[in-house]
Amino acid sequence: MTETAGKAARTKAYFNAPVFAVAPMIDWTDRHYRFFARQLSKHALLYTEMIVAEAILRGDRQRLLGFDVSEHPVALQLGGNDPAKMAEAARIAEGFGYDEINMNVGCPSDRVQSGTFGACLMQEPQTVAACVAAMKAAVKIPVTVKCRIGVDDQDPEVALRTLVAQVIDAGADAVWVHARKAWLQGLSPKENREVPPLDYGLVYRLKQENPNLFIGINGGLQTLNQALEQLPHLDGVMLGRAAYHDSAMLTAADRHFPHPLTGAKPIVEDGATFSERGHRLDLDFWAEVRDAMADYAAAHIANGGRLIHVTRHMVGLFQGWAGARRYRQILSSDATRQGAGPDVIYAAFDAVFEATAAKQAAE
């Protein structure tokens, strides 16, 4: 969407719980991934990659913030620590039509730390609160925070509660908690997603203490069933790499979660069948996904893009299916060749369709 698209912004506290969200992931949740994910789930809340506020103020806004209207509901994750710059970036993003502004207080990478934002701001809750207050004053859409439970030697029981208390006072509409500490030195970003122990119980207690605040959880959730187990305790669940690498699980999310914006009830379609892993099985659905992605890729190529920009997000789609290996081979090799077009997508899907039909005929 363009900068004029969001002028009729919604005014509401936050979204209809429970919410299923795909986490913001740098280099992964770009506009091409989000369009793809939206073909698989109409109800999942999608997040952009983290975009630094300063980049929005100085850079190519259409390139940074533009998105396809089909991506709604979609949230922008902002990185920064200057309240005035965060507020102006949020105002600009609202003009593009985003449904939420989320402040990154959880990323531990050296690149983010060098800008003094991300997880290191767990040590500066007053700065986070000032940014939230400034953004709330600048926009009508929800302003939220995604954080860790603490960093380094902080006591999570104290650090998380202190941060949340201050952002509540600043007007935050929701808090998404990655339920582990981050170590700012000595661990890579990958290790920071795996090594620090999870503490779901702390996030549950935080919700009990703040019943009127939307609190969602992130971290360590690998399957849709694990996500559903969180719902008695919390308002939302957020999956990251698990949802990206096994993206077919998104097809089952709409069976359990309402639409965040409209409140539309979970979708139960006649004739829709699902595997034990939560993958939708009926091939008519997958033919629609194929056609949508082929058309999208054709438009991207016509605008000067390359097929691989789109298909790199689709490689993990058919895990465990007949024909999945050939599907991956086609997307991994043929999509990279010069002049590759949408026919590669058709060939990859056909490999799965033909292998699945042969398997069913033999059973």
Automatic annotation (TrEMBL):
It catalyses: 5,6-dihydrouridine(20) in tRNA + NADP(+) = uridine(20) in tRNA + NADPH + H(+); 5,6-dihydrouridine(20a) in tRNA + NADP(+) = uridine(20a) in tRNA + NADPH + H(+); 5,6-dihydrouridine(20) in tRNA + NAD(+) = uridine(20) in tRNA + NADH + H(+); 5,6-dihydrouridine(20a) in tRNA + NAD(+) = uridine(20a) in tRNA + NADH + H(+). Its EC number is 1.3.1.91. The record marks 104, 190, 193, 325, 328 as: Interacts with tRNA. GO terms for molecular function: flavin adenine dinucleotide binding; FMN binding; tRNA binding; tRNA-dihydrouridine20 synthase activity. Gene3D superfamilies: 1.20.120.1460, Aldolase class I (3.20.20.70). SUPFAM superfamilies: FMN-linked oxidoreductases. Its cofactor is FMN. The keyword Metal-binding does not apply. It holds the Pfam family Dus. InterPro entries: Aldolase_TIM, DUS-like_FMN-bd, DusA, tRNA_hU_synthase_CS. FMN binds at residues 77, 146, 178, 218-220, 240-241. The active site is at residue 107. Catalyzes the synthesis of 5,6-dihydrouridine (D), a modified base found in the D-loop of most tRNAs, via the reduction of the C5-C6 double bond in target uridines. Specifically modifies U20 and U20a in tRNAs. This is tRNA-dihydrouridine(20/20a) synthase. It comes from Ensifer adhaerens (Sinorhizobium morelense).
